[in-house]
Each structure stands twice: as structure tokens, then as C-alpha cells.
Amino acid sequence: MDVLDIAEVARRSGLPASTLRYYEEKGLIASTGRRGLRRLFDPLVLQRLSLITVASSAGFSLDEIARMFGADGQPHLEREMFTAKADELDRRIGELTAMRDGLRHAAACPAPSHMECPKFLGILAQAPSAELPRRRSIQDR
User: Fold this and answer.
1) Which of 3, 31, 83, 95 could potentially form a cystine with 39 if both were Cys, beta carbons 3.0 to 4.6 Å apart?
2) Alpha-carbon dihedral sign for residues 46, 51, 54, 60
3) Number of neighbours of residue 13 by Cβ within 10 angstroms
4) What are the pLDDT digits (tens) for 41-63?
């Protein structure tokens, strides 16, 4: 089989044809031609789509993913980029773990009110607070 039409690529990759067209528009994949109105792709596009899917699942943006491919269209994976993303994921995992633990504590806390729970108050004290917009008083209007 020399080429796959877009429907076959969609079926095999599990990605909708609209995503394939979008990836082509962004330069992440390239069709090799058309059969009627259907785009045709080299079968190696499936491997490229797998890399795109894995990288996207890891949190890489489409622009970052595009930089993973050289001008020749072949993957040129930078280990430093992977290390930086792994470090970012470690930080996020730590944040999510702390959030999960706080929620579990809040759900089971025996204090009469969460605002009377020292652990919950400690969680609130550690949370970054966004500056809320000041409500305008009647005199400000």
C-alpha cells in the first residue's frame, strides 16, 4: 500500500479528519496528494501522529511539537526539551498531590467548620491569593 487516504489515517490513528486537516494546516503533517477530494498520506504519517499524540499528552504545545521535526520531516528530539518538560510535570504533580491531600483532609476534617481547622487554615495561608477587584462604593460611582 503506497498511500493512505484521510479516512484510513483517521481510522488507524483514532484522530478525526478535522484534526488531521488542522495538523496539516499547522505544518505538523503533510499530505502527498489527493484522490478526488480526499487527501492522501504516506503510511509513515501514522508514526508521526503517534509522536504528536504522545507529546501533546505530555503537555507540549503544537508549536513545541513542530520544533521536534527537522526540515527533512524526520523527528529531531532534543533531550533537554524532554528533561525540562519532565521537570515541569514533576512540579505539577507535586502541586496536584498537595491539592488532592488538602481536599481529602477537608472532606474528612472533624472540625465544626473548615475555618476552625488549623490544617485547612494553613492550606489557605499557603495558597497564592489573586488580588480581587475592589468593589466600588456608592461614593465612587
Assistant:
1) 31
2) negative
3) 19
4) 999 999 999 999 999 999 999 99
The tens digit of pLDDT for each residue in 87-120 reads 999 999 998 998 888 889 888 888 888 888 888 8
Q: Which three cell numbers stand for residue 106?
A: 477537608
Q: What is the pLDDT of residue 85?
A: 95
Q: DSSP characters for 14-39?
A: ---HHHHHHHHHTTSS---EEETTEE
How many Cβ atoms from other residues are within 10 Å of residue 48's Cβ? 22
Those residues with Cβ within 8 angstroms of residue 53's Cβ, 6 or more apart along the chain or in another chain: 13, 15
Q: Which long-range contacts (CB under 8 A, 24 or more apart) does 116-122 make?
A: none
Kindly list the distances between the CA atom of residue 136 and the CA atoms of 67, 139, 140, 141, in Å, as whole numbers in the listed order: 48, 8, 6, 7
Whole-angstrom Cα distance, residue 63 to residue 60? 8
> What single-letter amino acid sits at 51?
L
